[in-house]
Amino acid sequence: MTLKKLRKFSFIILTLCFSIYFIGNILPNLIGVPLAFYHSYKIEQEIKGHNNKIYETQPETAIDSSLQQKKN
Question: What does the radius of gyration of the chain's CA atoms come to, in whole angstroms?
Fold first, then answer.
């Protein structure tokens, strides 16, 4: 009779420990890693868009100004 109670008690304790481990360690990684990837992807796209705007406008103005200086 006591062996059954001991097994039941140990099963409950092990289940509780595993659930605490899952909630504390595995679950944040399952949720946090994809969120971090998504946010870094959005930031990368924003930076690329901003850099393209800068690079598209700067060479044109630099060439135009250098040509105007040579003409004068």
Answer: 31
The structure tokens 């659930």 sit at 19
* DSSP conformation letters of 8-56: HHHHHHHHHHHHHHIIIIIHHHHHHHHHHHHHHHHHHHHHHHHHHHHHH
Per-residue pLDDT reduced to its tens digit, 35-58: 999 999 998 888 877 666 655 555
CA dist., res. 26 & res. 23, Å (int) = 6
Extents of the domains making up the chain: 1-72
